[in-house]
Amino acid sequence: MTGGAGFVGANLVRELLEGGVDVRVLDNQSAGRPEFLRGLDLEVRTGTVADSTVVRRAVQGCEAIVHLAAMSGVAPSVEHPRRDFEVNVLGTFNVLEAARTADVRRVVLASSGAVVAGARPPLSEGLVPRPLAPYGASKLYGEAALEAFSTVFELSGISLRFSNVYGPYCSHKSSVVAAFCRRALRGRPLVIHGSGRQTRDFVHARDITKAIRMALRSDAGGVVQLGTGVETTINRLARLVSRAAGVPLRVEPSSAPRGEARRSYADISRARRVLRYRPGVSLEDGLSSTLEWLAENEPRAGSRRARARRISGSPHRASGASHPR
Fold first, then answer.
1. CB within 8 A of 16, min separation 6: which ones?
2. Which of 135, 166, 265, 277 is catalytic?
3. 182 in any annotated domain
4. Which end of the chain, N or C, is less packed with Cβ atoms under 10 Å?
């Protein structure tokens, strides 16, 4: 698993280990946290996917690869397009080339709805790609390269286009849910870029990891759009986060960044059909689980969380949620 010490990786690793899967992680620890993997029974190698020799050695003896390592986010790709290319484009090529030469059976690629960010939603696999930033363009390359390698080489691959993922192990993330939750727990206003009427499809990490495990077992190829199919405005998200944290809603307006889509939500009909994928975590429950994890794992946020509970008189626990620690 590339990027296994990151946000999605830290969630997925635990589920695979619980299922009896032997896991080897390759992570350069630039975004991921080594402590996310501490105490787990797995092999961890430090290195970047931009180094072909490191990747080639890491995949030896592996049956499948989950390629999560990436420079993530639209704004960082606008600020550092070359770095985005080196990790997301060259890095993905290195992974596919290593998989080909090592006779890896299956490759699951983490792609993004950013590939079709400029299209009219709902976002589906049949839309003409319209990336609005280098990040989306780099993910489009990954999808196309995996399709080509799967066609001409003995390699089975599938690209999963993630919507806006949130959940436990997000302490290093700058995505909107993680940012809102941290600020709410610290009693700070939530920063809303633009009008707040822009929409996103927020999908919990537990649903994403479930889809990845299904994709590893499946022989399906091509591209699969993942999300919930529910369109949520940033303004509504802010209200839900404040309510779940038990704090008053306070907003700090900010200018809209470049390269961001105005509306975005996924058509998950192909995911339902080929992977039997069914998202199971509601946004309300998912936000509660995210807040709880941050409160327990970020000391500054935790003290604020305790005060918020005393003020609100409600624990705001997620029903049926389980959180590996």
1. 1, 23, 213
2. 135
3. no
4. C
